[in-house]
Amino acid sequence: MAYSNWGARVYRNNERHSNYEDESIIVDGKRIGTYHAVLGGGNILLCGYKNYPVLFHINSESGELEKIDLTPFESCDGLEHKGVIDGYKFSARQYDDNRIDLELEEPCGTIWTSTCGYGYGG
C-alpha cells in the first residue's frame, strides 16, 4: 500500500507482509508516527519514511520507544547505515535520490527487508 506518491513493500523471510506497510507505531495508545515501512517484531524497529531510515529501540523495562541516532552508523558518503544493536543487525542504503533498501535481521534469524521511496509500493 502507498499513500501520496511514496510507499514501500515489506518482506519477512521473503514473504510479503503488507500489514507492515504504511503502518503507525503505537505506544501506550499514542500514535508515534506512520512510516512507509516498519521492520521488526522485537525491541528494535527499523522504519522507512520516504527515502530515510529511522531506527527505534523499545525499552523492555519501561516500554518506551526511543529513537536511535544513526549518525555513528553512517558510511563516509552518508548514503548507507549499518550496525548491530542488541543482537539485531540492520542496514539501510539510499539510492537514486528517492529510494532506500532496508534490512533487519533479528537475533532469532528472522530477516526483514523492504524497499521504499517515491513511486514505490502497493
Which helices and strands occur, and which strands form pairs?
Layout: E1 2-3, E2 6-12, E3 15-16, E4 21-27, E5 30-39, E6 44-49, E7 52-58, E8 65-68, E9 80-85, E10 88-95, E11 99-105, E12 111-118
Antiparallel strand pairs: 1-2, 2-3, 2-12, 4-5, 5-6, 6-7, 7-8, 9-10, 10-11, 11-12
Structure described in brief:
This protein is mainly β and 122 residues long.
Provide structural commentary.
With 122 residues, the protein is mostly beta strands. The chain has one domain (2-118). 0% of the residues lie in helices and 61% in strands. It contains no helices and twelve strands. The protein has strands at residues 2-3, 6-12, 15-16, 21-27, 30-39, 44-49, 52-58, 65-68, 80-85, 88-95, 99-105, 111-118. The strands form two sheets. Strands 1, 2, 3, 9, 10, 11 and 12 form a seven-stranded antiparallel beta sheet that branches. The protein has a five-stranded antiparallel beta sheet with strand order 4-5-6-7-8, with no helix packed on it. It starts with a strand and ends with a strand.
Number of domains: 1
The dominant shape is globular
- Number of E-state strands: 12
Alpha-carbon Rg, integer = 13 Å
Low-confidence sequence ranges: none
Order of helix and strand elements from N to C terminus: EEEEEEEEEEEE
Structural class: mainly beta
Distance between the termini: 4 Å
Q: How big a fraction of the residues is strand?
A: over 45%
| Average pLDDT figure | 90
Helix count, DSSP H or I runs of 4 or more residues: 0
Main pleated-sheet profile: 7 strands, antiparallel
Helix content: under 10%
